Inverse folding.
């Protein structure tokens, strides 16, 4: 069963053109989920384009050091 939570106005159908109320263009749609297109996700509409990763300058090791012996 789908869970819906709405903040503000949303279009009647998903993945369609959604115009701004003052007629100055369209909202930008973003589908956000942590497992790609599987699992729970959020469909968000933005007044400006969502940010985009252009370059990864360096990597950071996020391995938990405290749990290595139990892993």
């Amino acid at each position: 069963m789908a869970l819906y939570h709405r903040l503000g106005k949303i279009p009647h159908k998903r993945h369609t053109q959604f115009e701004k109320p003052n007629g100055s263009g369209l909202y930008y749609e973003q589908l956000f989920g942590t497992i790609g297109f599987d699992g729970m996700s959020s469909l968000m509409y933005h007044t400006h384009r969502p940010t985009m990763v252009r370059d990864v300058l360096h990597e950071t090791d996020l391995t938990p050091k405290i749990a290595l012996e139990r892993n």
Notes: The radius of gyration is 18 Å. Residues 18-50 form one domain. The chain is about 0% helix and 15% strand. The mean pLDDT is 81.
